[in-house]
Amino acid sequence: MQAPVVVMNTNSGERQTGRKAQMSNIAAAKTVADIIRSCLGPKAMLKMLLDPMGGIVLTNDGHAILREIEVSHPAAKSMIELSRTQDEEVGDGTTTVIILAGEMLAQSLPQLERNIHPVQIIAAFKRALKDALEIVEEISTPIDTTDDKAMYSLISSSIGTKFVSRWSDLMCELALKAVRTVTWEPGNGNKEVDIKRYARIEKVPGGEIEDSRVLDGVMVNKDITHPKMRRRIENPRIVLLDCPLEYKKGESQTNIEISKEEDWNRILQIEEEQVKAMCDSILALKPDLVITEKGVSDLAQHYLVKANVTPCGDKEFGSTLADRAHAGNAHGSDPDERVQWGDLAPTRERRCQPVRVLTDLRAKHAEGKTSWGINGDEGVIVDMHQYGVWEPQAIKLQSIKTAIESACLLLRVDDICSARKGAQPGQGGGGEE
Question: Does the keyword Chaperone apply (predicted)?
């Protein structure tokens, strides 16, 4: 009898095959989904993340949470990649797609335990995907993008679930204004919005949230270098510099031996003459504003202020921001304030039963009332058309397609093997594994 031929090194790493690999993938996907499951909806909870540098991040955004955690299982890494893809494609629904994919895999687990082949489960998922996409297309309602009221209700569905729900009206207004500011028509009748290229969010310490605004132009996070300079200039003539407005010191160490007091004064005079020559060259262009990414010396400030020119550089005055920061903490909380148990547990107090609410919702949908949904604040079913809660069709379609396709992909995996590790430095790589 011929001896078996070994075609794979069994000592190259951990390997899982068959049903064990499928169960491992499902468990990893469910674990990732359980991490952010409580971050979905208007009553979403926050996650506290500690980065390696000791910083703390509080957020309920699925993509922001998953990109900060480290996982080793390949299925978990695949789930995190779903969140990144969803964020890049449509910008929202990152939590939804992870939870939906994890739930699809969880529902397939009992079928696998009944020895149903994964190909049959995948075929059922694809039929469900086709039906879901057709239903979404059927019940979708077109809206006028120029209608502010309709756009506000659409934006608030996403903004309202975030930590800034207290200022959701302001954020909706800022978001809509920012998008319309960067919207442009290339000429073929279509509108293009490239937020990553033309929009930027700049955070300035101090002040209040209500001070946020959309600037139609370019923002430079610099301050004037002298208190007597103008803070508001209309239609300015601007000079941009990438060099410092100060005496440039030598790159190598220089020693000067001085024997007379006049020589020392002459050295200082040469430095002043060089700075004055730089300022004269700039003033010859008759600018109103000079912006440099480097430093601005006191002497250069003197010459520019004398010519009524405002420079902005690295030398900033932070007293105003510091005062605002202290003022923002002036309104402290009352240490004697107490919260009743009823305010913390409205669901238990009202005896809300999820099964009964879902049954009532399915009954409404069976009657053809597809616009009915669950009010996340009160736990009752309402007509979302009248309630003003909408979700973009693109987000829903992308979430369903991405979640089901990724679940089918993981179900097809029946073998997990570790790749061969590369040779370590200083070790010979000519031998066989």
Answer: yes
pLDDT one-digit tens code per residue, 213-229: 888 888 877 777 777 77
User: Binning pLDDT at 50, 70 and 90, where does residue 425 land?
Assistant: low
Longest dimension (CA), the chain: 105
The answer to whether 241 and 208 are in contact (CB under 8 A) is no
Q: Are 51 and 57 in contact (CB under 8 A)?
A: yes
Task: State whether 59 and 129 are in the same domain.
Answer: yes
Return the structure tokens found at 135. Answer: 């239903």
340 within a domain of the structure (yes/no): no
Q: Is residue 200 assigned to a domain?
A: yes
CATH of the domain at 87: 1.10.560.10
CB atoms near residue 156 (< 10 Å) = 19
- Answer yes or no: do 29 and 122 share one domain: yes
- Interior CA angle at 238 toward 235 and 240, to 5°? 155
Q: Cα-flanking dihedrals φ and ψ of residue 30, to 5°?
A: -65, -35
Residue 166 and residue 97 share a domain: no
For residues 227 and 210, state if they share a domain: no
Q: Please give the helix or strand (H or E) that residue 16 lies within, else none.
A: strand 15-17
Query: Quick one: 52 and 99 in the same domain?
Result: yes
Per the domain annotation, does 119 fall within a domain? yes
Percent of the chain with pLDDT over 90: 6
Q: Which of 133-147, 167-181, 205-219, 342-356 has the lowest mean pLDDT?
A: 342-356
d(CA 294, CA 280): 18
Which of 180-184, 251-255, 286-290 is least confident?
A: 251-255
Alpha-carbon span 144 to 179, nearest angstrom: 15
Structure tokens at 334: 């009352």
CA quadruple 166, 170, 172, 178: dihedral positive or negative?
negative
Asked if 76 contacts 67 with a C-beta cutoff of 8 angstroms, the reply is no
Evaluate if pTM is beyond 0.70: no
| Domain containing residue 381 | 353-389
Residue 297: CB atoms within 10 A of its CB come to 20
- The highest-confidence range among 153-167, 375-389, 413-427, by mean pLDDT, is 375-389
pLDDT of residue 18: 72
Regarding whether 205 and 158 lie in a shared domain, the answer is yes
For residue 330 the two structure tokens come to: 């002036």
Average pLDDT (75-89) is 86
